[in-house]
Amino acid sequence: MLGLTSSDWEALRLTLRLALISTGLLLVLCLPLAWWLAHTQRRIKVVIEALVALPLVLPPTVIGFYLLILLGPRGVVGGTLERLGVGHLAFTFTGLVIGSMIYSLPFVVQPLQNAFQAMGRRPLEVAATLRAGPFDRLLSVVLPLSRQGLLTAAVLSFAHTLGEFGVLLMIGGGIPGQTQVASIAIYSHVEALDYASAHRLSLFLMLVAFTLLTCIYALNRRFKVVGVMP
Amino acid sequence: MSVSGTLRLKRGDFELEAELELPERGVTALFGRSGSGKTTLLRCLAGLERGEGWLSVNGCRWQHGRHFLPVHRRPLGYVFQEASLFPHLRVRDNLRYGYRRVAAGQRRVDFDETVHLLGVEALLDRHPHALSGGQRQRVAIARALLASPRLLLMDEPMASLDAASKAEILPYLERLHTHLEIPVVYVSHALEEVARLADYLVLLEAGRVLAAGPLHELLVRSDLPLSHADNAAAVLEARVLECDAVQQVIALECGAGRLWLSHPPAPTGTPLRVSVKARDVVISLTPPQDSSVLNCLPARISEIADDPHPGHLLVRLTIGDQTLISRITREAAKRLALVVGQPVYAQLRGAALS
Amino acid sequence: MQAIFKRLLMSVAALGMSLALTMAQAEQEPTRIAAAASLRAVMDELVATYRTQHPAASLEAVYGASGSLRAQIENGAPFDLFFSADMAFPQALEAGGHAAGDVTPYAEGRLVLWSEDIDASTLTLGELADARFRRIAIANPRHAPYGARAEEALRASGLWQTLEPKLVFGENIGQALQMVHSGAANVGILALAQMHASSMRGSTFHLIDSSLHQPLENGFIITRRGGDDPTARGFADFMQSPEAQRILEAYGFSMPRGD
């Protein structure tokens, strides 16, 4: 179909799955982290902020190499999992998810942190005095009020994962059907001078991403409200 | 006592240490200069700050030792200085936010009634950003009331409003005063506001309680800074006797005498509060026959105290079972040979109803 | 005030002139070799040796993936010589009219088996089917020459079907080595030249029979840009010298068999 081979389709499916899962997990995990960063007065905050930004510093393949060491059978994480009988994470889909999450971390934490800082503590105090418990406050106040930041974070993380290559190739090993995502497939087409296949897959990937992002932005426009507490 | 406790909190250089015993009904004002710890104390009562000590409200322990009831479990209403409406919700949903979170069986307020009490019926479908400052604060007060509080806390709800919005909102606050059956703690640094709204006063200075007691007593105590302020005033409790609808004047019965005030007609017997500034009280030895000042009450001097101003004295006057204060010059006191226990006449150059 | 202004103007002028001079010097660019990343160690030594023989020559090497370098040269990159890790890329450049002369084979690479955990010297390809080898790293056969030859060797040994599920693919032979280094892959089919890198000193490996695959011939060309450059010509000639051959051999390359 559309001139894409079955392994191209497989790569696309894998890419979307990876982008959705890692974006979803990142949003959930980064919420408390970004909240803490937005409100803490502790000095350690600047260190954590710098750590979060670190994935931007290293070349992706190098991050991939370090992750491979960490998650592989001889690494702290991979080795422990191995001893627990779970098996190490190098060249697995789980490994890919972890890799892309680490790589996209700053793109999620920073918009969320900004949104939370802009919101301040007041809306939560108000909600608490109106009988809303902590989880209730998260759903009824924090999420709606930081929707813009959440959206930015989700879009950045999603798009970033779609295009990610270096980290994913290193940690995933480019195994067709398992860890070969669309970006790796495209790169491989180009390197093999199979430009026609590369163009087709690139075009399709961009089309999918474009459609998805347009839908998200359109939805956001429809539900736009004023975000500052009067 | 419905609200009692001892709360301590240290924040950098500032240290709050307050012991409280507040009455079951009516408005208690936490009064003091900015930085005296009023808001901090109020936040401690709400549980928004976690101080040390204990606090019990209506017999329920809100804080004791390591026990600390989180804010959302405390049946309270809190009105912040800025209205702090949720920007993503229309007025109706802002009002319903706390209302929905109280079990139907435990609700003690009616939605429509509260909406009517604060006059926000016409605003229900608007977004908060389309409201004026006064309207927002009214919605915020209604929202707090709709959560069926057993204690209403208000942090200078008028401080961020302009004069027009203040004038708009004051009548609503006074209505609350007469309608609410729950204790209200009201933070303010404006004496006029306190004189109009409060029944009980807690005077704070540098994080400590300087004095606490019924408003009319504390206002006239010469050992407290209140009576020496430029706009120092006493309050008199009065009742409507008769009205003149044509001249828009009402007569009030007040302890030992009768007062005339410009005011739209009100039903006979309505209780009203009259606030009289110390600088507006003139003392004479005989009932004046030829003065333009209409209101004159027979009184007895109960105290003559020094004023921070070297040329002034503060005179406390007992009128029936109520008290007025008058600020006069030392020279005048000498000329009239005023002494404690002397019967005099208090002429009121101005009196405001509250 | 005016004096200060004058002085300022003069220092600005001086700065401008010195900048212009620097730029004029930059015009005389050195002769540049574009070489496959896998050649880094050996090429550094070749260039150093050539420099000692020709102190006046200005020569430097730039490293990258052969495919990328090829695309860059096609698009006018300032490279005078191109040393590829295969024959196909320089041949494509020649066919496209980007070369000043024929493709010259200069060395032949060999495949090895290497593992971080175990002594690979006694290892054979057949043993890779063992369960203890869970992941085998090779370069991507689709576009990396060493990957393609590795696939040929496995197919010729009748192992491809069995081993394919265990394979992980590096973008190039360098990444395949990193995968083995990290321990994430148990074993890799790598390049003999890599075993001569300084960090690999003393490691033991199994040399894979070169008859199992097509020769891993490496070729170079002088680009059209380098056609008139005497240093480029000089270095091309140097590559045929016994001195250069000795260095190549020391780094695990054998001489082209010649056809």
UniProtKB/TrEMBL annotation, chain A:
The lineage of its organism: Bacteria, Pseudomonadati, Pseudomonadota, Gammaproteobacteria, Oceanospirillales. It holds the Pfam family BPD_transp_1. Its main location: membrane. NCBIfam families: modB_ABC. This is Molybdenum transport system permease. Belongs to the binding-protein-dependent transport system permease family. CysTW subfamily. The chain crosses the membrane at residues 20-38, 50-69, 89-109, 201-219. It comes from the Bacteria. The gene is modB. Residues 12-214 form the ABC transmembrane type-1 domain. Part of the binding-protein-dependent transport system for molybdenum; probably responsible for the translocation of the substrate across the membrane. Keywords: Cell inner membrane, Cell membrane, Membrane, Molybdenum, Transmembrane, Transmembrane helix, Transport. The keyword Membrane applies. It is found in: Cell inner membrane; Cell membrane. The keyword Hydrolase does not apply. It is a multi-pass membrane protein.
Automatic annotation (TrEMBL), chain B:
GO terms for molecular function: ATP binding. Keywords: ATP-binding, Cell inner membrane, Cell membrane, Membrane, Molybdenum, Nucleotide-binding, Translocase, Transport. It holds the Pfam family ABC_tran. Residues 1-231 form the ABC transporter domain. Residues 290-354 form the Mop domain. PANTHER family: ABC TRANSPORTER I FAMILY MEMBER 10, MOLYBDENUM IMPORT ATP-BINDING PROTEIN MODC 2. NCBIfam families: modC_ABC. This is Molybdenum ABC transporter ATP-binding protein. The gene is modC.
From TrEMBL, chain C:
It comes from the Bacteria. Pfam families: SBP_bac_11 (PF13531). CDD domains: PBP2_AvModA. Residues 1-26 form the signal peptide. Keywords: Metal-binding, Signal. Belongs to the bacterial solute-binding protein ModA family. This is Molybdate ABC transporter substrate-binding protein. The gene is modA.
